[in-house]
């Protein structure tokens, strides 16, 4: 945090920004603004040299196979992201971001690729795509129910170095042991689009508190957000496909 | 396989184009560059016409005459006849039972009876295929209208854009020498497997229902394969969209339209090799060799510039830059198929709605303008359109099968441009939209129905922007 402004890095939206994941940055910036805290969005493109150090929070979205392989190569460059994680800076990885931040993933051509290893999670292709609403009970204190939309082929197995972000109530999630997502320290990964922080303000605030290093003033959820969460976490909401 | 639909008295190749032309049929055409470059094929000797072996100076070629009226002059095999009759009967029955326009069911039945029906119905006609993520329906209607300045043209006006929809459209009038057919991006290859269209229009490609359509790159690769199957077709393509450039660049006959791109997030990296391109507004050249081609037509704030720098005013009834781009594609197609600019343009100009898009109708007793937006790129176009006025605004979003179940794309749309402007929201996913607008600092009111939303607006003629099924529902409940 420099000059009382939280620096939010949107990492590789040109490679990993398939579906609304930029929204997570909008949500974080606005939730800070509502509390009178400034922020600066640092967009890191694949044309840049490396991931800049000194950001307070890193957001990594999802993308295609080819993009994921390119992203790993870029994110390893200079080691900036790994050092930030060592210092406890929060990182949010969505979908392909989860796979890239994990230990390994297998692309459509059957090739296994080494990930960044910032969470202990290995991904292989499943038999069919998991597409639909996903609801979990979060393992993170105070976060509660998580809601999102999943659309992925990957099935992810967690190693001892990570724990799930949530227990699946509805949907597929990682595809093993009713787990969804992966958490190691302040690195939080999930298959949830939605975007996840728009639908789950408590998770957004937890990441912000980690970024700032102190508790934030509570913020009342606007009525439409409350209603949306009720609608989306209702068990009888149809899960098509 | 013997094709009994072909007649033995087809004109021989020695005949001049004029001799080959049957009455009531459109004039032969060439590979038209802008109109003043066109040559009159009738004044040329057969050696000058021919194919394009002579190289770059060749602006036109003689295309074989459309075969004659299939119904009157040809003996068709029984199977084809049966399929045509059954398809038409099913269509009219379904129409009478109020099951919709009946096209799809008729087309599907007819194709079951005669799997070759599409190519048989297309044979002898000059078909223009229109594809891309956005603007297909409007552009197809523009093409159909422009062609009608020359001769009758059929079209899948209701937007049934897969093969059965094409069959249904072609069945509506067997003697129409022209067809303008909208085709789903992923189905063009199936069409070009079956017959060679006279022209193929590639409008744009951007993310659209990832849970259904797949990645933009996949679609671009599929279009490229589709074009490779029809080397003699004239391709008319958007040179400002790198994904379209990638799909069309290897084709031998491309007319490039420059319409600009507002939505860039699917065009930051080279579709061929993945390298960063960055700003697509300039003359980019990727390290792999893919580059932005020079434009044959350049859309301006009021019309279009041809390759010689002559400006053509468009003066459309339809609003916005996006429709000037669509109209330019349609005009280029009409000229390619032998049309004259003035009559073609006159017909394009008069179009004031396309399957309800841009139409002013009454909904719940209130006069409104209907706008369709179904993905980030088209939302951006429509928001741009309405940001020019201060009419009340109603936004409607559903997430049914035809829309895609995931609404995360709402966060790809720059709703921030509506900041401070009160908006009414409705639809299955009104709450998602309201949350999005809250974060964009746009004051929004959630309404249970579009009619309730309209009741919450002040005077004026509200703009209703809706995504696919939401638009369809509002249109169904509306009156002219
Ligand atoms: Zn390239």
TrEMBL record, chain A:
Which stretches make up the CobB/CobQ-like glutamine amidotransferase domain? 7-200
Gene Ontology BP terms = cell wall organization; cobalamin biosynthetic process; peptidoglycan biosynthetic process; regulation of cell shape
Query: Active site at which residues?
Result: 95, 193
Task: Give the pathway listed in the UniProt entry for this protein.
Answer: Cell wall biogenesis; peptidoglycan biosynthesis
Top-rank taxon, per record: Bacteria
What is this enzyme's catalytic activity, as reactions? beta-D-GlcNAc-(1->4)-Mur2Ac(oyl-L-Ala-gamma-D-Glu-L-Lys-D-Ala-D-Ala)-di-trans,octa-cis-undecaprenyl diphosphate + L-glutamine + ATP + H2O = beta-D-GlcNAc-(1->4)-Mur2Ac(oyl-L-Ala-D-isoglutaminyl-L-Lys-D-Ala-D-Ala)-di-trans,octa-cis-undecaprenyl diphosphate + L-glutamate + ADP + phosphate + H(+); L-glutamine + H2O = L-glutamate + NH4(+)
Q: Which UniProt keywords apply?
A: Cell shape, Cell wall biogenesis/degradation, Glutamine amidotransferase, Hydrolase, Ligase, Peptidoglycan synthesis
Q: Where is the signal peptide?
A: none
**GO molecular function, one example?**
carbon-nitrogen ligase activity on lipid II
Q: Does the keyword ATP-binding apply?
A: no
Q: Which PROSITE patterns match?
A: GATASE_COBBQ (PS51274)
Assigned protein family: Belongs to the CobB/CobQ family. GatD subfamily.
Annotated function: The lipid II isoglutaminyl synthase complex catalyzes the formation of alpha-D-isoglutamine in the cell wall lipid II stem peptide. The GatD subunit catalyzes the hydrolysis of glutamine to glutamate and ammonia. The resulting ammonia molecule is channeled to the active site of MurT.
Q: How does it assemble?
A: Forms a heterodimer with MurT.
Name of the protein: Lipid II isoglutaminyl synthase (glutamine-hydrolyzing) subunit GatD
Species this chain originates from: Saccharopolyspora flava
Q: What is the lineage of its organism?
A: Bacteria, Bacillati, Actinomycetota, Actinomycetes, Pseudonocardiales
UniProtKB/TrEMBL annotation, chain B:
According to its UniProt record, which protein family does this protein belong to?
Belongs to the MurCDEF family. MurT subfamily.
Q: Where is the Lipid II isoglutaminyl synthase (glutamine-hydrolyzing) subunit MurT C-terminal domain?
A: 372-470
Q: Which PANTHER family match?
A: LIPID II ISOGLUTAMINYL SYNTHASE (GLUTAMINE-HYDROLYZING) SUBUNIT MURT, MUR LIGASE FAMILY MEMBER
Keyword ATP-binding found: yes
The protein's matches in Gene3D superfamilies, at most eight in alphabetical order, are given as: Mur-like, catalytic domain
Gene Ontology MF annotations: acid-amino acid ligase activity; ATP binding; carbon-nitrogen ligase activity on lipid II; zinc ion binding
The entry's active site is 406
Q: Which UniProt keywords apply?
A: ATP-binding, Cell shape, Cell wall biogenesis/degradation, Ligase, Metal-binding, Nucleotide-binding, Peptidoglycan synthesis, Zinc
Q: Tell me the first and last residues of the signal peptide.
A: none
| Listed name of the protein | Lipid II isoglutaminyl synthase (glutamine-hydrolyzing) subunit MurT
The reaction(s) catalysed by this protein are: beta-D-GlcNAc-(1->4)-Mur2Ac(oyl-L-Ala-gamma-D-Glu-L-Lys-D-Ala-D-Ala)-di-trans,octa-cis-undecaprenyl diphosphate + L-glutamine + ATP + H2O = beta-D-GlcNAc-(1->4)-Mur2Ac(oyl-L-Ala-D-isoglutaminyl-L-Lys-D-Ala-D-Ala)-di-trans,octa-cis-undecaprenyl diphosphate + L-glutamate + ADP + phosphate + H(+); beta-D-GlcNAc-(1->4)-Mur2Ac(oyl-L-Ala-gamma-D-O-P-Glu-L-Lys-D-Ala-D-Ala)-di-trans,octa-cis-undecaprenyl diphosphate + NH4(+) = beta-D-GlcNAc-(1->4)-Mur2Ac(oyl-L-Ala-D-isoglutaminyl-L-Lys-D-Ala-D-Ala)-di-trans,octa-cis-undecaprenyl diphosphate + phosphate + H(+); beta-D-GlcNAc-(1->4)-Mur2Ac(oyl-L-Ala-gamma-D-Glu-L-Lys-D-Ala-D-Ala)-di-trans,octa-cis-undecaprenyl diphosphate + ATP = beta-D-GlcNAc-(1->4)-Mur2Ac(oyl-L-Ala-gamma-D-O-P-Glu-L-Lys-D-Ala-D-Ala)-di-trans,octa-cis-undecaprenyl diphosphate + ADP
**InterPro entries reported for this sequence:** Lipid_II_synth_MurT, Mur-like_cat_sf, Mur_ligase_cen, MurT_C
UniProt lists compositionally biased (Polar residues) regions at 42-56
Q: Quote the function comment for this protein.
A: The lipid II isoglutaminyl synthase complex catalyzes the formation of alpha-D-isoglutamine in the cell wall lipid II stem peptide. The MurT subunit catalyzes the ATP-dependent amidation of D-glutamate residue of lipid II, converting it to an isoglutamine residue.
**Pathway(s) of this molecule:** Cell wall biogenesis; peptidoglycan biosynthesis
What is the scientific name of the source organism? Saccharopolyspora flava
Q: Is Cell cycle a UniProt keyword of this protein? A: no
Q: Where does Zn(2+) bind?
A: 270, 273, 286, 288
């Amino acid at each position: 945090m420099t000059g009382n402004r939280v620096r939010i890095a949107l990492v590789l939206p040109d490679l990993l920004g398939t579906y609304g994941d930029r929204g997570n940055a909008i949500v974080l910036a606005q939730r800070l603004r509502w509390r009178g805290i400034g922020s600066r969005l640092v967009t890191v493109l694949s044309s840049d040299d490396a991931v800049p150090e000194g950001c307070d929070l890193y957001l990594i979205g999802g993308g295609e196979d080819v993009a994921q392989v390119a992203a790993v190569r870029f994110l390893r460059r200079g080691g900036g992201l790994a050092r930030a994680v060592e210092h406890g800076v929060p990182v949010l990885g969505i979908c392909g971001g989860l796979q890239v931040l994990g230990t390994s993933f297998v692309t459509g051509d059957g090739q296994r690729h080494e990930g960044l290893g910032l969470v202990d999670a290995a991904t292989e292709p499943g038999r069919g795509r998991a597409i639909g609403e996903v609801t979990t009970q979060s393992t993170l204190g105070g976060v509660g129910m998580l809601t999102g939309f999943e659309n992925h082929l990957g099935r992810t197995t967690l190693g001892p170095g990570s724990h799930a972000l949530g227990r699946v109530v509805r949907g597929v999630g990682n595809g093993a042991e009713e787990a969804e997502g992966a958490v190691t320290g302040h690195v939080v990964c999930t298959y949830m689009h939605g975007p996840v922080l728009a639908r789950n303000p408590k998770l957004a605030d937890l990441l912000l508190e980690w970024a700032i290093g102190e508790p934030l003033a509570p913020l009342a959820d606007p009525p439409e957000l409350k209603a949306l969460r009720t609608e989306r976490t209702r068990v009888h909401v149809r899960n098509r496909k | 396989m013997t094709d009994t639909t072909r007649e033995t008295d087809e004109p021989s190749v020695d005949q001049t184009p004029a001799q080959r032309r049957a009455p009531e049929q459109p004039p032969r055409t060439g590979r038209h560059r802008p109109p003043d470059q066109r040559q009159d094929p009738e004044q040329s000797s057969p050696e000058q016409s021919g194919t394009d072996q002579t190289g770059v100076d060749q602006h036109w070629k003689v295309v074989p005459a459309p075969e004659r009226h299939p119904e009157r002059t040809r003996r068709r095999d029984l199977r084809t006849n049966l399929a045509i009759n059954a398809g038409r009967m099913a269509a009219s029955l379904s129409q009478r039972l109020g099951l919709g326009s009946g096209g799809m069911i008729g087309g599907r039945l007819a194709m079951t009876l005669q799997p070759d029906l599409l190519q048989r119905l297309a044979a002898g006609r000059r078909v223009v295929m229109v594809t891309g993520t956005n603007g297909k329906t409007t552009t197809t209607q523009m093409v159909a209208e422009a062609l009608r300045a020359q001769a009758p043209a059929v079209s899948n006006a209701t937007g049934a854009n897969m093969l059965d929809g094409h069959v249904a459209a072609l069945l509506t009038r067997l003697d129409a020498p022209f067809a303008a057919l909208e085709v789903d991006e992923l189905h063009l290859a199936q069409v070009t497997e079956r017959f060679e269209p006279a022209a193929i229009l590639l409008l744009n490609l951007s993310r659209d229902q990832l849970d259904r359509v797949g990645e933009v790159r996949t679609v671009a690769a599929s279009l490229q394969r589709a074009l490779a199957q029809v080397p003699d077709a004239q391709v008319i393509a958007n040179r400002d969209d790198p994904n379209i450039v990638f799909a069309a660049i290897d084709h031998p006959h491309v007319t490039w339209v420059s319409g600009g791109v507002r939505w860039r997030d699917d065009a930051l990296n080279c579709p061929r090799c993945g390298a960063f391109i960055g700003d697509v507004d300039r003359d980019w050249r990727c390290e792999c060799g893919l580059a932005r081609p020079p434009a044959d037509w350049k859309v301006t704030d009021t019309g279009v510039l041809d390759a010689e720098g002559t400006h053509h005013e468009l003066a459309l009834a339809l609003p916005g830059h996006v429709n000037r781009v669509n109209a330019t594609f349609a005009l280029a197609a009409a000229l390619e198929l032998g049309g004259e600019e003035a009559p073609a343009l006159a017909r394009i100009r008069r179009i004031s709605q396309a399957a309800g898009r841009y139409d002013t109708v009454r909904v719940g007793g209130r006069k409104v303008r209907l706008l369709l937006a179904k993905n980030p790129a088209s939302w951006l176009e429509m928001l741009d359109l309405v940001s020019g006025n201060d009419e009340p605004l109603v936004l409607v979003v559903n997430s049914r099968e035809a829309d895609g179940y995931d609404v995360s794309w709402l966060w790809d749309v720059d709703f921030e441009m509506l900041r401070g402007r009160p908006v009414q929201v409705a639809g299955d996913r009104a709450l998602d939209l309201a949350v999005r607008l809250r974060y964009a600092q746009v004051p929004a009111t959630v309404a249970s129905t579009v009619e309730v939303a309209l009741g919450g607006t002040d005077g004026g003629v509200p703009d209703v922007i809706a995504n696919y099924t939401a638009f369809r529902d509002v249109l169904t409940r509306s009156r002219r």
